[in-house]
Design goal:
17 helices; 7-stranded mixed beta sheet; alpha/beta; 19% strand
C-alpha cells in the first residue's frame, strides 16, 4: 500500500514535469515569434556581400557576370508606367498599373473581401512619425511598402517635423515615388503636441504622444524601421494591441479611438487591462535574425524590426539575387514575389540587325568616328548603319564612307532635328548629351537595333543569343553619382523595337533635372533597373570604357576604383574575345596616326602583323592600336 507521503511526492514530480514542458514550449514559440532575448547569431552580415559598404563585390569574373547579366529591379518621379501599366512578374508584356510593383496594395495573394470587411475593426489608418531633416531611404520605403501589402490601409498619415531632404543627384526619391503611386498618403506637418515626440528621447513621453494621437480617431502607429509581415484584418478586432519594442518606438500600436478618458490617462494604465481583457493585447515583433532561423516567410511574425548596423543602409542591387531569407523577404515586399527576376531572351523575334548613330551639330568626321562606323559594318556586321542628326558630317573620312563600294549603300544619313522639349520640359540648347539620350530611346521604341556612340569600336560581334534580349546595356565605370550604387551607360546598347523598358525609360523623362549632368541618361535608368530588373539586361562585357588610355572593365573586381585599370590588373588579357566593344571617351583620336598605301592588321602584344593591301595603317603604340581593330574589308583592294 502506497503511503500518502509517497503519493504526494509522485504528484509533485508529475506537476514539475508538466510545468517544465509548458515553459519549454512557450520559450520555443517566443523564439520563433520574435523573443527579445534571442541573440543575433543567425543573421548574415549584409555588408559582407557588398564592396565598400555600398555594392556587391565581384568575387569571380564569370559567375558574377552571368548572375548579374539580368541587371538586378525603381523609378523616379515621372517614371510612371508602360502606357499606363507597370511591374510585377511579367507575362509577355503585361504588367500592373503604377510605377512600383505594389499591385492592389495588399498582401501577396489577395485576401478575400469578407476577411477585410469585418464590423468592429479599428480603422486601417496608419501613422508615421518622421523627425529631423534627412533622407528617406530604401529601407524606409520598404517599411511603408510592407504596410501597403500587409494592411491595405485606408490612409497613411506621414507626420514630419522638418522638410524631408533628398540628395543632390535625386537618388533617394523613395517617398516621392510612393506619393506618386499611392493616392492616400497625407503629408502632415507636426503640430505643437505631436512635435514633442521628436523633442524628447524619453520612452514614456514618446509613447504617450503616440497614444494621444491615436486616441482622436483610432488607427495604427508603425515605427520607421518596422516591416509589417503577416497582419490579417482580424488583428484589429481589439481595443489595444501594444507591439512596441522595449525602450524604443519600433514596432506598432493598434488602438481604438477614445480609450484615454482624459489627458491625465497614461498608456501604462491602458496596458494594465491586458491582464484582465482579451481585447487588450501585448505583442512582440521579430528581429531579422528570427527570419534567418525560421526561414518560413509565410508563418513568420506579424512584424519585423530592422535594426543594427548590418542593415543601416542597403540597396535593391543587394537583394536582386540574394538567395537567403532576407533576400526573399525584401523581394516579396519590393517586387511582390520572392523569385529572382531576370531578363529572359525570346527568339521568335531578334533585335533588328541595323545600326544607329547620332550626330548633332555637324562638323568633320574624325578618325575615331570613322573607325566606329566601319566597325559596325565589318565587325558587328550590321546590315546598314543609320546616322541620325541635323547635319551630315564633313571631311575626307565622310566622303570616303559615301563613295567606297563596300560602304556607300549601307550607310544612310537621316535628318533629325534635335529635341528642345519633351513632355513640355525644356532641354537646354547646350545639353547635346541629353538630346542624344532622347533621340536614342525614341529610335529604340520606333525601330529597335544596335546603337553605338561615335567613340566606340566593335571588336567582337553579337551572337544570336545576345539578340534575343529585349533591351541590353552596361554599367558605367565612373563612380560619379553617389548615393546611386551604380549608373547605366547606353553608349553601346541594343534592343527590340518597342520593348517595355524603352517606353518606361522615355516616360521617366517627364522630369529632366537639367541641373544634374547625366541624370536622365545614366542615373535615372539605374532607378528604373532597380524597379524592373527583368526588363533590362546588364551585360558587363558589352563594352569597356577607356579614359586617358587606361581601360576599366566593369566585370573586374572593384571596377569603380579609378586606380585599377587594364595596365595594372591584366583584366583584359584577350581584347578580341573578352568584350564586344571598346570606347575611348577621352582623349579621342581625331586623325589617323599614320596613313600609307599599305597597312598592317595590328596585333596584340608581341604578335607579328599581317600585311595586307588597303589604305589605313594603325599605329600599334596608340590606345586604339591595341584594340584589335581589323577593317580588312573597309577599303578596296
Amino acid at each position: 500500500m502506497v503511503s500518502w507521503r509517497a503519493l504526494s511526492k509522485r504528484l509533485r514530480l508529475l506537476l514539475f514535469v508538466a510545468i517544465s514542458a509548458v515553459v519549454i514550449c512557450l520559450a520555443l514559440s517566443s523564439l520563433h515569434s520574435g523573443a527579445p532575448w534571442a541573440d543575433d547569431s543567425g543573421a548574415v552580415p549584409l555588408q559582407q556581400q557588398r564592396q565598400r559598404g555600398r555594392r556587391p563585390a565581384v568575387e569571380d569574373e564569370e559567375p558574377r557576370h552571368r548572375a548579374r547579366d539580368g541587371g538586378g529591379g525603381v523609378g523616379s518621379r515621372g517614371a510612371s508606367s508602360i502606357e499606363g501599366q507597370a511591374p510585377l512578374p511579367l507575362d509577355g508584356a503585361e504588367e500592373e498599373r503604377g510605377r512600383y510593383p505594389i499591385g492592389a496594395f495588399g498582401a501577396t495573394g489577395a485576401p478575400q473581401v469578407g476577411s477585410l470587411l469585418i464590423e468592429g475593426l479599428v480603422p486601417p489608418d496608419v501613422h508615421y512619425l518622421w523627425c529631423g531633416s534627412r533622407w528617406f531611404e530604401f529601407k524606409h520605403y520598404l517599411g511603408l511598402m510592407s504596410v501597403l501589402r500587409a494592411i491595405s490601409p485606408d490612409k497613411i498619415y506621414f507626420h514630419f517635423e522638418q522638410k524631408i531632404e533628398t540628395d543632390e543627384v535625386y537618388y533617394n526619391q523613395w517617398l516621392d515615388d510612393l506619393k506618386y503611386d499611392y493616392p492616400w498618403i497625407e503629408m502632415k506637418q507636426m503640430d505643437s503636441q505631436v512635435v514633442r515626440y521628436c523633442a524628447t528621447q524619453d520612452y514614456d513621453e514618446r509613447v504617450q504622444v503616440i497614444v494621444r494621437l491615436l486616441n482622436d480617431d483610432g488607427g495604427m502607429f508603425v515605427g520607421q524601421n518596422t516591416w509589417m509581415l503577416n497582419f490579417p484584418a482580424r488583428r484589429r478586432l481589439v481595443d489595444l494591441d501594444f507591439g512596441l519594442e522595449r525602450y524604443t518606438t519600433e514596432g506598432y500600436i493598434v488602438m481604438r479611438r477614445g480609450l484615454l478618458s482624459d489627458e491625465s490617462t497614461s498608456y501604462r494604465q491602458l496596458l494594465q487591462n491586458t491582464r484582465r481583457s482579451d481585447r487588450y493585447l501585448r505583442s512582440t515583433c521579430a528581429k531579422i535574425h528570427h527570419i534567418y532561423r525560421r526561414g518560413d516567410l509565410d508563418n513568420v511574425s506579424t512584424c519585423a524590426i530592422l535594426s543594427g548596423h548590418l542593415y543601416e543602409r542597403f540597396y535593391p542591387i543587394d537583394i536582386w539575387e540574394l538567395e537567403d531569407p532576407f533576400g526573399r523577404l525584401v523581394r516579396r515586399i519590393f517586387y511582390g514575389t520572392e523569385e529572382v527576376r531576370r531578363p529572359v531572351p525570346t527568339y521568335r523575334e531578334l533585335v533588328p540587325n541595323i545600326g544607329h548613330m547620332i550626330w548633332i551639330g555637324g562638323g568633320a568626321m574624325d578618325y575615331l568616328f570613322y573607325l566606329s562606323l566601319l566597325s559596325m559594318l565589318f565587325v558587328a556586321k550590321v546590315d546598314a548603319v543609320y546616322l541620325h542628326g541635323d547635319a551630315e558630317p564633313a571631311g575626307d573620312y565622310w566622303k570616303e564612307i559615301k563613295t567606297m563600294e563596300q560602304t556607300k549603300d549601307r550607310v544612310r544619313f537621316i535628318m533629325r532635328i534635335p529635341p528642345h522639349q519633351i513632355y513640355q520640359g525644356d532641354v537646354q540648347p547646350f545639353y547635346r548629351a541629353l538630346m542624344s539620350d532622347l533621340i536614342r530611346v525614341d529610335l529604340m521604341i520606333k525601330y529597335g537595333g544596335i546603337y553605338t556612340d561615335t567613340d566606340a569600336i566593335w571588336v567582337k560581334p553579337l551572337t544570336a543569343e545576345d539578340r534575343g534580349y529585349e533591351a541590353v546595356a552596361s554599367f558605367d565605370w565612373v563612380d560619379w553619382s553617389w548615393p546611386f550604387p551604380d549608373s547605366v551607360n547606353f553608349g553601346i546598347s541594343y534592343g527590340k523595337r518597342n520593348a517595355p523598358f524603352w517606353r518606361i525609360f522615355r516616360d521617366s523623362m517627364r522630369v529632366l533635372h537639367n541641373d544634374v549632368h547625366g541624370f536622365s541618361g545614366v542615373m535615372m535608368p539605374y532607378k528604373l533597373l532597380e524597379k524592373y530588373p527583368h526588363l533590362l539586361r546588364i551585360d558587363r562585357r558589352l563594352q569597356v570604357i577607356c579614359y586617358h588610355s587606361k581601360c576599366h572593365p566593369i566585370y573586374a573586381p572593384d571596377y569603380h576604383n579609378m586606380s585599377k585599370d587594364h595596365t595594372n590588373t591584366n583584366s583584359i588579357p584577350n581584347w578580341r574575345q573578352d568584350v564586344n566593344a571598346i570606347r575611348s571617351t577621352h582623349p579621342t583620336t581625331t586623325t589617323c596616326p599614320r596613313t600609307t598605301r599599305t597597312r598592317t592588321a595590328f596585333p596584340i602584344g608581341d604578335r607579328t602583323s599581317t600585311p595586307s593591301t588597303g589604305r589605313i595603317r594603325i599605329q600599334r603604340s596608340t590606345p586604339i592600336g591595341r584594340l584589335c581593330w581589323r577593317p580588312m574589308a573597309c577599303s578596296p583592294k
